[in-house]
Amino acid sequence: MALKAEEEQFLPSTPGKFKDKWSSGKNRQFYRCFASTSTMFLWALFLVALTAAYLSFQSFVDSGNKFFSAACGGAHWEKQIRSSAQIHRHNGFAVLVTVPPVSSEATHVMHLAAQAGVRYAMENPQSYVHSNIAGLVSLLEASKTADPQPAIVWASSSSVYGLNDKVPFSESDQTDRPASLYAATKKAGEEITHTYNHIYGLSITGLRFFTVYGPWGRPDMAYFSFTRNILQGKSITVYRGKNRVDLARDFTYIDDIVRGCVASLDTSKKSTGSGGKKRGPAQYRIFNLGNTSPVTVPQMVGILEKAIESEGKEKCD
Q1: pLDDT of 187-209, one tens digit each?
Q2: How far is CA 273 from the centre of its chain?
Q3: CA-to-CA distance for 173 and 168, rounded, in angstroms?
Q4: Is residue 135 within a helix (H) or strand (E), and if so which, with residue range?
Q5: Start and end of every NAD-dependent epimerase/dehydratase domain (predicted)?
Protein backbone atom coordinates (compact mmCIF):
# COMPACT_ATOMS: atom_id res chain seq x y z
CA MET A 1 0.00 0.00 0.00
CA ALA A 2 2.86 2.32 0.81
CA LEU A 3 4.44 1.57 -2.52
CA LYS A 4 1.19 2.31 -4.30
CA ALA A 5 0.83 5.64 -2.54
CA GLU A 6 4.35 6.54 -3.52
CA GLU A 7 3.67 5.61 -7.14
CA GLU A 8 0.60 7.79 -7.17
CA GLN A 9 2.82 10.78 -6.56
CA PHE A 10 4.24 10.28 -10.03
CA LEU A 11 0.86 9.94 -11.76
CA PRO A 12 -0.10 13.05 -13.67
CA SER A 13 -3.25 14.91 -12.64
CA THR A 14 -3.96 15.52 -16.34
CA PRO A 15 -3.45 12.78 -18.97
CA GLY A 16 -0.31 13.31 -20.96
CA LYS A 17 1.35 15.45 -18.28
CA PHE A 18 4.42 14.27 -16.31
CA LYS A 19 4.42 14.82 -12.57
CA ASP A 20 7.87 15.64 -11.28
CA LYS A 21 8.55 14.43 -7.72
CA TRP A 22 11.54 16.74 -7.49
CA SER A 23 9.43 19.88 -7.84
CA SER A 24 10.16 21.99 -4.81
CA GLY A 25 8.09 24.83 -3.45
CA LYS A 26 10.37 27.37 -5.09
CA ASN A 27 10.03 25.60 -8.40
CA ARG A 28 6.27 25.54 -8.11
CA GLN A 29 6.29 29.26 -7.26
CA PHE A 30 8.48 29.92 -10.30
CA TYR A 31 6.12 27.92 -12.53
CA ARG A 32 3.13 29.87 -11.24
CA CYS A 33 4.91 33.15 -11.93
CA PHE A 34 5.94 32.02 -15.40
CA ALA A 35 2.44 30.77 -16.17
CA SER A 36 0.93 34.03 -14.98
CA THR A 37 3.38 36.07 -17.10
CA SER A 38 2.69 33.89 -20.15
CA THR A 39 -1.04 34.29 -19.68
CA MET A 40 -0.73 38.06 -19.45
CA PHE A 41 1.47 38.10 -22.54
CA LEU A 42 -1.02 36.02 -24.48
CA TRP A 43 -3.90 38.26 -23.40
CA ALA A 44 -1.93 41.34 -24.42
CA LEU A 45 -1.12 39.78 -27.77
CA PHE A 46 -4.77 38.88 -28.24
CA LEU A 47 -5.89 42.44 -27.46
CA VAL A 48 -3.33 43.88 -29.88
CA ALA A 49 -4.49 41.51 -32.62
CA LEU A 50 -8.14 42.31 -31.87
CA THR A 51 -7.47 46.05 -32.03
CA ALA A 52 -5.56 45.71 -35.30
CA ALA A 53 -8.33 43.60 -36.79
CA TYR A 54 -10.95 46.17 -35.75
CA LEU A 55 -8.97 49.06 -37.20
CA SER A 56 -8.41 47.13 -40.44
CA PHE A 57 -12.07 46.23 -40.67
CA GLN A 58 -13.12 49.81 -39.94
CA SER A 59 -10.74 51.05 -42.64
CA PHE A 60 -12.17 48.48 -45.04
CA VAL A 61 -15.73 49.55 -44.25
CA ASP A 62 -14.88 53.24 -44.63
CA SER A 63 -13.10 52.68 -47.93
CA GLY A 64 -15.90 50.39 -49.08
CA ASN A 65 -18.52 53.00 -48.23
CA LYS A 66 -16.56 55.61 -50.11
CA PHE A 67 -16.20 53.29 -53.09
CA PHE A 68 -19.84 52.30 -53.23
CA SER A 69 -21.10 55.83 -52.66
CA ALA A 70 -18.83 57.04 -55.44
CA ALA A 71 -19.47 54.11 -57.75
CA CYS A 72 -23.20 53.53 -57.57
CA GLY A 73 -25.09 55.97 -55.42
CA GLY A 74 -25.38 59.43 -54.00
CA ALA A 75 -25.94 62.88 -55.43
CA HIS A 76 -22.44 63.14 -56.93
CA TRP A 77 -22.81 59.79 -58.70
CA GLU A 78 -26.25 60.77 -60.01
CA LYS A 79 -24.82 64.04 -61.30
CA GLN A 80 -22.02 62.21 -63.12
CA ILE A 81 -24.45 59.77 -64.73
CA ARG A 82 -26.74 62.53 -65.94
CA SER A 83 -23.79 64.52 -67.27
CA SER A 84 -22.37 61.53 -69.16
CA ALA A 85 -25.79 60.79 -70.66
CA GLN A 86 -26.12 64.24 -72.20
CA ILE A 87 -25.93 64.44 -75.98
CA HIS A 88 -22.81 66.49 -76.68
CA ARG A 89 -23.08 66.91 -80.43
CA HIS A 90 -25.79 67.67 -82.95
CA ASN A 91 -27.99 64.64 -83.64
CA GLY A 92 -25.81 62.54 -81.33
CA PHE A 93 -26.90 59.52 -79.28
CA ALA A 94 -26.84 58.80 -75.58
CA VAL A 95 -26.43 55.01 -75.52
CA LEU A 96 -27.01 52.87 -72.45
CA VAL A 97 -25.16 49.54 -72.62
CA THR A 98 -27.21 46.97 -70.72
CA VAL A 99 -27.27 48.39 -67.22
CA PRO A 100 -30.87 48.79 -65.97
CA PRO A 101 -32.54 50.89 -64.73
CA VAL A 102 -32.81 52.86 -67.93
CA SER A 103 -31.79 56.50 -67.56
CA SER A 104 -34.31 59.12 -68.81
CA GLU A 105 -31.25 60.77 -70.88
CA ALA A 106 -30.71 57.51 -72.69
CA THR A 107 -32.01 57.69 -76.29
CA HIS A 108 -30.74 54.20 -77.23
CA VAL A 109 -30.02 50.92 -75.43
CA MET A 110 -27.42 48.41 -76.66
CA HIS A 111 -28.25 45.18 -74.85
CA LEU A 112 -25.25 42.86 -75.15
CA ALA A 113 -25.21 41.18 -71.73
CA ALA A 114 -26.19 37.51 -71.74
CA GLN A 115 -25.16 34.04 -70.62
CA ALA A 116 -23.39 32.66 -73.68
CA GLY A 117 -22.30 29.16 -74.67
CA VAL A 118 -24.16 26.04 -75.73
CA ARG A 119 -22.51 23.30 -73.66
CA TYR A 120 -22.64 24.98 -70.25
CA ALA A 121 -26.39 25.53 -70.64
CA MET A 122 -26.86 21.80 -70.08
CA GLU A 123 -25.07 22.04 -66.73
CA ASN A 124 -26.64 25.25 -65.43
CA PRO A 125 -29.93 25.93 -67.24
CA GLN A 126 -31.23 28.25 -64.51
CA SER A 127 -28.40 30.69 -65.15
CA TYR A 128 -29.40 30.98 -68.82
CA VAL A 129 -33.07 31.47 -68.02
CA HIS A 130 -32.19 34.10 -65.41
CA SER A 131 -29.82 36.09 -67.64
CA ASN A 132 -31.22 35.65 -71.15
CA ILE A 133 -34.94 35.76 -70.38
CA ALA A 134 -35.55 37.35 -66.97
CA GLY A 135 -32.75 39.88 -67.49
CA LEU A 136 -34.11 40.87 -70.90
CA VAL A 137 -37.63 41.29 -69.52
CA SER A 138 -36.31 43.53 -66.73
CA LEU A 139 -34.62 45.73 -69.32
CA LEU A 140 -37.76 45.93 -71.47
CA GLU A 141 -39.91 46.75 -68.43
CA ALA A 142 -37.62 49.64 -67.54
CA SER A 143 -37.54 50.82 -71.16
CA LYS A 144 -41.30 50.78 -71.71
CA THR A 145 -41.93 53.19 -68.81
CA ALA A 146 -39.12 55.60 -69.73
CA ASP A 147 -40.16 58.94 -71.16
CA PRO A 148 -39.12 59.13 -73.91
CA GLN A 149 -38.72 55.45 -74.60
CA PRO A 150 -35.29 54.45 -75.96
CA ALA A 151 -34.70 52.50 -79.15
CA ILE A 152 -33.30 49.06 -78.31
CA VAL A 153 -30.65 47.04 -80.15
CA TRP A 154 -29.92 43.67 -78.60
CA ALA A 155 -27.82 40.54 -79.22
CA SER A 156 -29.70 37.47 -80.35
CA SER A 157 -27.82 34.52 -81.87
CA SER A 158 -27.49 32.47 -85.03
CA SER A 159 -28.20 29.48 -82.76
CA VAL A 160 -31.92 30.20 -83.19
CA TYR A 161 -31.72 28.52 -86.61
CA GLY A 162 -31.35 25.25 -84.73
CA LEU A 163 -31.94 22.19 -86.87
CA ASN A 164 -32.39 24.10 -90.13
CA ASP A 165 -30.47 22.44 -92.96
CA LYS A 166 -30.73 25.18 -95.58
CA VAL A 167 -27.66 27.38 -95.85
CA PRO A 168 -26.93 30.19 -95.90
CA PHE A 169 -29.44 31.12 -93.22
CA SER A 170 -31.93 33.88 -93.92
CA GLU A 171 -33.82 36.10 -91.50
CA SER A 172 -37.02 34.82 -93.09
CA ASP A 173 -36.24 31.17 -92.22
CA GLN A 174 -38.27 29.43 -89.55
CA THR A 175 -36.62 29.35 -86.14
CA ASP A 176 -38.94 27.05 -84.22
CA ARG A 177 -36.57 24.09 -83.84
CA PRO A 178 -33.80 25.12 -81.42
CA ALA A 179 -31.13 22.49 -80.81
CA SER A 180 -29.96 23.72 -77.39
CA LEU A 181 -31.29 25.45 -74.30
CA TYR A 182 -29.11 28.46 -75.10
CA ALA A 183 -30.75 28.73 -78.53
CA ALA A 184 -34.17 28.37 -76.93
CA THR A 185 -33.50 31.30 -74.57
CA LYS A 186 -32.44 33.49 -77.50
CA LYS A 187 -35.50 32.45 -79.51
CA ALA A 188 -37.63 33.29 -76.47
CA GLY A 189 -35.95 36.69 -76.38
CA GLU A 190 -36.97 37.37 -79.97
CA GLU A 191 -40.58 36.51 -79.22
CA ILE A 192 -40.58 38.61 -76.04
CA THR A 193 -39.08 41.67 -77.76
CA HIS A 194 -41.69 41.37 -80.50
CA THR A 195 -44.40 41.40 -77.82
CA TYR A 196 -43.06 44.59 -76.22
CA ASN A 197 -42.74 46.16 -79.65
CA HIS A 198 -46.36 45.34 -80.44
CA ILE A 199 -47.89 46.31 -77.08
CA TYR A 200 -45.75 49.23 -75.92
CA GLY A 201 -44.28 50.68 -79.12
CA LEU A 202 -40.63 49.96 -78.33
CA SER A 203 -38.31 50.22 -81.34
CA ILE A 204 -36.48 46.88 -81.45
CA THR A 205 -33.55 45.59 -83.52
CA GLY A 206 -32.34 42.02 -82.90
CA LEU A 207 -28.90 40.99 -84.14
CA ARG A 208 -28.14 37.33 -84.75
CA PHE A 209 -24.39 36.97 -84.16
CA PHE A 210 -22.44 34.25 -85.98
CA THR A 211 -19.51 32.84 -83.97
CA VAL A 212 -17.75 36.06 -83.03
CA TYR A 213 -13.97 35.84 -82.65
CA GLY A 214 -11.06 38.23 -82.09
CA PRO A 215 -9.17 39.94 -79.25
CA TRP A 216 -10.75 39.45 -75.80
CA GLY A 217 -12.74 36.52 -77.16
CA ARG A 218 -14.49 34.04 -74.90
CA PRO A 219 -12.00 31.45 -73.57
CA ASP A 220 -14.49 28.60 -74.08
CA MET A 221 -14.52 29.04 -77.87
CA ALA A 222 -13.29 26.07 -79.92
CA TYR A 223 -10.31 27.85 -81.48
CA PHE A 224 -8.86 28.52 -78.02
CA SER A 225 -9.13 24.90 -76.90
CA PHE A 226 -7.85 23.63 -80.27
CA THR A 227 -4.83 25.93 -80.10
CA ARG A 228 -4.07 24.91 -76.53
CA ASN A 229 -4.27 21.20 -77.36
CA ILE A 230 -2.03 21.59 -80.42
CA LEU A 231 0.63 23.41 -78.41
CA GLN A 232 0.46 20.79 -75.65
CA GLY A 233 0.59 17.88 -78.07
CA LYS A 234 -2.89 16.67 -77.15
CA SER A 235 -5.46 15.28 -79.55
CA ILE A 236 -8.31 17.38 -80.98
CA THR A 237 -11.82 15.99 -81.14
CA VAL A 238 -13.46 16.95 -84.44
CA TYR A 239 -17.21 16.38 -84.41
CA ARG A 240 -19.07 15.65 -87.63
CA GLY A 241 -22.68 16.16 -88.59
CA LYS A 242 -25.30 14.01 -90.23
CA ASN A 243 -23.86 11.43 -92.66
CA ARG A 244 -20.36 12.29 -91.38
CA VAL A 245 -20.43 15.69 -93.06
CA ASP A 246 -17.90 18.25 -91.80
CA LEU A 247 -19.50 20.85 -89.55
CA ALA A 248 -19.01 24.47 -90.62
CA ARG A 249 -19.36 27.80 -88.82
CA ASP A 250 -19.66 31.32 -90.15
CA PHE A 251 -16.92 33.04 -88.14
CA THR A 252 -17.33 36.81 -87.76
CA TYR A 253 -14.52 39.14 -86.68
CA ILE A 254 -15.30 41.38 -83.72
CA ASP A 255 -14.68 44.60 -85.68
CA ASP A 256 -17.41 43.63 -88.14
CA ILE A 257 -19.79 42.95 -85.27
CA VAL A 258 -19.06 46.39 -83.82
CA ARG A 259 -19.77 48.02 -87.19
CA GLY A 260 -23.07 46.15 -87.38
CA CYS A 261 -24.05 47.26 -83.88
CA VAL A 262 -23.22 50.90 -84.57
CA ALA A 263 -25.03 50.80 -87.91
CA SER A 264 -28.10 49.39 -86.16
CA LEU A 265 -28.03 52.28 -83.70
CA ASP A 266 -27.61 54.77 -86.53
CA THR A 267 -30.62 53.43 -88.43
CA SER A 268 -32.92 52.79 -85.47
CA LYS A 269 -36.15 54.76 -85.49
CA LYS A 270 -37.66 56.25 -82.39
CA SER A 271 -39.95 54.25 -80.16
CA THR A 272 -43.59 55.30 -80.41
CA GLY A 273 -44.69 54.80 -76.82
CA SER A 274 -44.70 57.11 -73.84
CA GLY A 275 -45.05 56.17 -70.20
CA GLY A 276 -45.91 52.58 -71.10
CA LYS A 277 -48.59 53.50 -73.67
CA LYS A 278 -48.20 52.85 -77.38
CA ARG A 279 -48.92 55.77 -79.73
CA GLY A 280 -48.43 53.98 -83.04
CA PRO A 281 -46.59 51.16 -84.89
CA ALA A 282 -42.90 50.90 -84.01
CA GLN A 283 -39.89 49.60 -85.89
CA TYR A 284 -39.04 45.91 -85.45
CA ARG A 285 -36.06 44.35 -87.24
CA ILE A 286 -33.98 41.16 -87.19
CA PHE A 287 -30.54 41.05 -88.86
CA ASN A 288 -27.95 38.33 -89.39
CA LEU A 289 -24.43 39.55 -88.59
CA GLY A 290 -22.24 37.20 -90.58
CA ASN A 291 -20.48 37.02 -93.94
CA THR A 292 -22.11 33.87 -95.43
CA SER A 293 -18.70 32.21 -95.85
CA PRO A 294 -18.76 29.15 -93.56
CA VAL A 295 -15.48 27.53 -92.55
CA THR A 296 -15.41 23.80 -91.75
CA VAL A 297 -13.85 22.60 -88.52
CA PRO A 298 -10.98 20.79 -90.33
CA GLN A 299 -10.28 24.00 -92.26
CA MET A 300 -10.15 25.96 -89.03
CA VAL A 301 -7.75 23.43 -87.50
CA GLY A 302 -5.55 23.74 -90.60
CA ILE A 303 -5.48 27.53 -90.25
CA LEU A 304 -4.46 27.23 -86.59
CA GLU A 305 -1.75 24.67 -87.40
CA LYS A 306 -0.29 26.98 -90.03
CA ALA A 307 -0.40 30.00 -87.71
CA ILE A 308 1.40 28.29 -84.81
CA GLU A 309 3.59 26.10 -87.08
CA SER A 310 2.60 22.85 -85.42
CA GLU A 311 0.39 19.94 -86.41
CA GLY A 312 -2.45 18.70 -84.26
CA LYS A 313 -3.59 15.16 -83.59
CA GLU A 314 -7.15 14.95 -84.86
CA LYS A 315 -9.63 12.48 -83.39
CA CYS A 316 -12.96 12.28 -85.18
CA ASP A 317 -16.23 11.69 -83.35
Answers
A1: 999 999 999 999 999 999 999 99
A2: 32
A3: 10
A4: helix 135-145
A5: 105-270
